[in-house]
Amino acid sequence: MRDWTWRYEGYDPARERVRESLCTLGNGYFATRGAAPECVADPVHYPGTYVAGCYNRLTSQVAGRQVENEDMVNVPNWLPLRFRAVPGGWLSPDTHKVLDHRQTLDLRAGTLERTVRYEDEDGRRLAVRQLRLVHMADPHLALLRTELTAEGWSGEIEVEAALDGSVANMGVERYRQLASRHLIHLHGGSADAEIAWLRCRTRTSDIRIGLAGRTVVDVPAEAFTAHEEERAVQLLRIPVTDGRPVTVDKTIALHTSHDPAISDPFHAAVDRVRRAPGVEALLASHRTAWKQLWRNAELEVPGDAGPVLRLHLFHVLQTLSPHTADLDVGVPARGLHGEAYRGHIFWDELFVLPYLNLHFPEVSRALLTYRHRRLERARFAAADAGHSGAMYPWQSGSDGREETQRLHLNPRSGRWLPDHTRLQHHVNSAIAYNVWQYCEATGDMEFLTTKGAEMLTQIARFWAGLATYDDTVARYRIRGVVGPDEYHEAYPHAAEPGIDDNAYTNVTAAWTLARARDLMHTLPEPRRRDLFERSGMEPDELDAWDAVSRKLYVPFHDGVISQFSGYGDLAELDWRAYRDRYGDIRRLDRILEAEGDTVNRYQASKQADVLMLGYLFSDEELQGLFRRLGYDLDDATWQHTVDYYLARTSHGSTLSSLVHGWVLSRSRRAQAWDFVQEALAGDIADLHNGTTGEGVHLGAMAGTLDLVQRGLTGLETRGGALRFDPVPLPKLSEYGFSVRYQGHWGVRLRLQPRRLRITVPHSDQEPITVALSDRTVSVAPGESYALTLPD
Questions:
Q1: Mean per-residue pLDDT over the chain, rounded
Q2: Which end of the chain has less Cβ packing within 10 Å, N or C?
Q3: Mind telling me the catalytic residues?
């Protein structure tokens, strides 16, 4: 780890999948895992390339029934480039002696450099140096430069450069029983002596894919083709002299039929790669694009946390770059880095958009527009289930239908089990929250009063319709849901899935209803009239929203907020015994199921979703929400609640340590740093037992960035002001970053012990209102202001 580089020394097959994920290169349009170009998919390696929004649906036989799944497609592999001394076998780290091996990820430049020295079966040594990039300026281009040097011998080497369409989605072991071949109608050929091409389409979604590669050698070489049915192959025979390097440059272009302004992806790819500039020009424009990204996402954190946060930011930007603003895509939970969760979109934007709002708001707007385009589908889903409004799916893909599987595999027991996580309707509130936060941060009233208002209206209608009045508690209740915790899908011995009155679901539903009602009253009258007419709303619906938002039931037991009704009646788990027996019990649900038990019986959480309320809302906001609901949530009750769930959480989600770190830091707790460290290390140390090799955890990565941006500074964009309530951790007491806020670019913030400095760049914008708990100041463009923080 260095400030701007991430380096792996030596070749370690056991860690190769994790390294491939963390060395993924992407540009928001597509990304390619950091696999060795001379290696194919096998138990050690998994080269994968994924195009944002490219999905396909296949049907499989699972446990005696037909199951349909939609996957983010592993598109043809552009990487393959292998080499050998003539005569001799193709060199790879798994078949030949590796004298040394190093991978260096350059975050500043967005490049991956790999050096390896091989010794073949005849004792000949070949030094290989490769530089790879997925172009950040032109999102359809990528480059692999390979420098080959014979050591102690002269003769010939053979190089094979290929475009491989024989790939399948096989990157997640527990999915391998399912149908995985998404590509059909594969054809390859040559456009000229330097350019090979491959075209195909996805099996059911019928997305056409065009891939073209231009391979150039810097010395005279014999070149010929050996195209196969599913691979376009170029072969080069190159003379080499001891100690004198030869360079092979492979530039590729990738297009799909989803791309605008093209007639055909095959012709577009061939034309683009033919017109692509040389390597030096490609490198220069790529580095410039990354320089601009880093400038707009400035983050200066000293100490060991700084490089990790920069790596997290690097992977967020590779998945969700400014190019994303032109696409119809959501936030894939595992990035464009692997096939876990099938590339689906969950609620992870809840942890990603708060960061993007203050740096790349055009990307946030595009991601919210993805949700708006699927509003009609969400309304169909609600109607089909007998509900009003819009019911967004827990897992989304191409068209907004529910993609959550009906069965899931417990790899510990080998059993396929019913999956009820589609009942996580709290995703509706996450979308509403993201709309509101985006508009507060950007001042984008046009979005709020159009697309935003339409989504908030239909989500509010859903919550108001789902809530039913119960005379026994004189409150509204929401029954039959699953909370973010996910461990509890049903009550013990219940015939039907779902639990009642999940606190997180109910409180966020109340918040959504209140915000939607407020928005309806503040909309310009012509817009309000249009919205009411188009949606068939009646004025008395707003009264119902208000009533439900004030009277939703929040259960308590033993002086703490209950995760759901009846949570306090569940059995206590012998946590010490399970830790002694199994060590890592993050996936306690799988452990118990394999024992013939169920986590539904216990007061145990994968992630304590009650504490998520402290993640989304400041103390002031949360107490205000509970007062509006008619409950008194004082500091003592909240702290008791935090302690209660801390003792009963297995942290089976990478988001759990992030949320606990955030909540504890706001409480000025010493143990907050332990959770922050775990959140930082989640992917780089692969703390969740091999899951990083299937793709990074994008929400957790973005959440750590937002922890230092908003969590420790107490930064809120609320009521037309930048509000601060800093609670710096001793390990992160001084750092700086910049944000975009309501038309102001590059507002610099510097947190120091007992001081916060804000610098507003020159512009023609209005001054920024900055609020602390005890005062409010106005900072005009071109000014810098230092605020002394209260003790």
A1: 95
A2: C
A3: 486
